[in-house]
Amino acid sequence: MRTYRLEIRLIQVAVGLALIVLIAGFAGFWGQGGKAPVVPVNPDSTTTNPSLSNPKIVALGDSFTLGYPLDPEYSWTVRTAEVLQVPVINKGKSRQTAKDLLDRFDTDVVAEKPGRVIIFAGIGDALQDVPLTEVQTNIKAMVEKAKSNHIIPILALPIEYPGERESINEIREWEWGYAQQEEILTLDFSKALFDTEGKYLTGLTINDKYPNAKGYKAMGDYAAQVLK
After folding, report:
1. CA Rg, the chain, in Å?
2. 38 Cβ contact list (under 8 Å, min separation 6)
3. Which of 36, 42, 158, 206 is the most buried (most CB within 10 A)?
4. Measured distance CA(178)–CA(35) in Å, rounded
5. CB-based contact 117:146 (threshold 8 Å)
6. Which of 87, 82, 79 has the alpha carbon at shortest distance from 58?
7. Which value, to the nearest 10 degrees, does the dihedral of the CA atoms of residues 48, 177, 142, 228 take?
8. pLDDT at residue 16, as a whole number
9. 3-class SS at 117?
10. Backbone φ and ψ of 13, nearest 5°
11. pLDDT tens, position by position, for the chain (228 residues)?
12. The pTM is what?
């Protein structure tokens, strides 16, 4: 009988101690205003969006980035810079494939130390019959180079060019899907230049191949709207 009473007593003591610990825990919790304790953040982790602290943008592309056949001062990059009031460095060159852009990525993009890079590739590849798999490999490589250098990549989808609709559409479809998968922002200048049938809007082209000054301005306004 005494043994039984002793066991009961021990159980009561254990329950009492458990209640004391529980009450102390709740007291500490409510003493912080009902908030769970903050877990310290790894000081070496990079969580800051580079574009917020570094507004510079590099536009890497072909003739359509350069502003051909006009002077570069009429390019869409100039208009984008004016609207956003940030530096937009034009690194466009004529007759460029994605491989050409990749080859000069370090000197024309990384060396500029921008917060963002707009990669405008695909039209030159279609014109030079570059296989889609090669285009994919080169664009992916540029995206990885950008990320590894803490630069936010932005993909500009290739736009309509006479006689190359099928090839360009293949690149566009893949690039759009890839951008969605990797959560990469895209620019589709077709929305600023073409109607639903893929024809230049009235007054925006020189020869149905390239934009005129108004066309490049429309591209710049569109880019600024997406990037702001």
Report:
1. 29
2. none
3. 158
4. 40
5. yes
6. 87
7. -40
8. 54
9. strand
10. -65, -45
11. 444 444 545 445 454 545 444 444 444 433 433 333 333 333 333 333 444 689 999 999 999 999 999 999 999 999 999 999 999 999 999 999 999 999 999 999 999 999 999 999 999 999 999 999 999 999 999 999 999 999 999 999 999 999 999 999 999 999 999 999 999 999 999 999 999 999 999 999 999 999 999 999 999 999 999 999
12. 0.78
For residues 149, 151, 152, 155, the Cα torsion angle rounded to the nearest 10 degrees is -90
Of 185, 60, 65, residue with least CA distance to 110: 60
In this structure, are residues 123 and 164 in contact, taking their beta carbons and an 8 Å threshold? yes
Closest by Cα among 102, 164, 163, 96 to 137: 102
Helix axes 165-182, 132-148, angle to 10 degrees: 30
Q: Please, how many CA atoms are within 13 Å of residue 168, restricted to the half-sphere of its CB?
A: 18
Q: How far apart are CA 172 and CA 37, in angstroms?
A: 48
Tokens of 115: 């917060």
Q: What letter would DSSP give residue 73?
A: G
